């Protein structure tokens, strides 16, 4: 592992505290600070860390709201001019433009954005495994030193994440589509529920809960994000609004062809999303296996998978208490699915291709 650099984290929110927990677990020496004494105290208790005398930090991670990032980086640079600096904010282009005007700092800074989070903000929601298996975007410029990229990549991988690289502008346009627009839609949809009584909302199914989950997010955080990425967000809102208007017109005209086309576009778009967060999209074949409701059946099915020499990528279980059978749906590569189906049928399992 070698000598790991000492790390200072400015910002004891969800991301900053989770970074601290992950890096400490890996073996880094980490100190965390926050202008909010309560958040700082909680984060340090989670780290089981005492207040240390000032160290010479090799890495400074800035995990504060978007509007505060630049001023905190400048302040930290004056204290730690030999450190490398990275931020974890949700927008990149405006910040990078400001950094470009600081000749010395620009050589020591790399923008980054972990694609992980929770609706719960602050250190109370922090987890050491928050980034495990997730994507973490870095946004180097043509002038970013390779040595800096290598050091930041090592740190990100220590948190358990996978590094993806793109330009700051590419990042902001992408995030407007895959993160910022979904947040806006979820918040607006949840806002439409204000006129519905709690008694009636008790009848809502899981679909409403799923589509409004993001509406629990903090408005204070999102005001900064929307303002700093407003141009790309406005473009995505215009496109989304156009689709809503098309549906409106199709409903008025009772045009089932156009309505069906919108739903089919949604089916296709949804199918492009990877089943594993941060992983590259893959196409799976699904096998549904009906098993009796008795002890050991799930373990027996996994043993059959091992005997067949196949790798199960994902699974889901459908079963209600008292039901005599359960349905296990396995996601496999096409070749493994074919192999496992034959193996299970030969061994008298009830298998269905879905």
Question: What do you see in this structure?
Answer:
This protein is an alpha/beta fold. The chain folds into 3 domains: 162 residues, Rossmann fold (3-Layer(aba) Sandwich); 101 residues, 6-phosphogluconate dehydrogenase C-terminal like domain (6-phosphogluconate dehydrogenase C-terminal fold), CATH 1.10.3660; 69 residues, VC0802-like, CATH 3.30.2130. The strands form 2 sheets. Strands 2-1-3-4-5-6-7 form a 7-stranded mixed beta sheet, sandwiched between helices. Strand 9 and strand 10 form a beta hairpin. It is globular, with a radius of gyration of 24 Å. The two termini are 46 Å apart.
By DSSP (H or I, 4+ residues per run), the number of helices equals 13
CATH architecture verdict of the largest domain? 3-Layer(aba) Sandwich
Query: CATH fold name of the largest domain, please?
Result: Rossmann fold
Based on CA inertia axes, which overall geometry fits? globular
User: What's the average pLDDT?
Assistant: 91
CATH superfamily of the largest domain: NAD(P)-binding Rossmann-like Domain
Which segments are poorly predicted (pLDDT under 50) over 5 or more consecutive residues? Answer: none
The total number of structural domains is 3
CATH secondary-structure class of the largest domain: Alpha Beta
**Biggest β-sheet: count, sense, barrel?**
7 strands, mixed
Q: Order of strands side by side in the largest beta sheet?
A: 2-1-3-4-5-6-7
Instruction: Report the order of strands and helices.
Output: EHEHEHEHEEHEHHHHHHEHEEHE
Radius of gyration over C-alpha positions, nearest whole angstrom: 24 Å
Domain ACT: 286-354
Enzyme class: oxidoreductase
Domain Prephenate/arogenate dehydrogenase: 5-281
Catalytic activity: prephenate + NAD(+) = 3-(4-hydroxyphenyl)pyruvate + CO2 + NADH
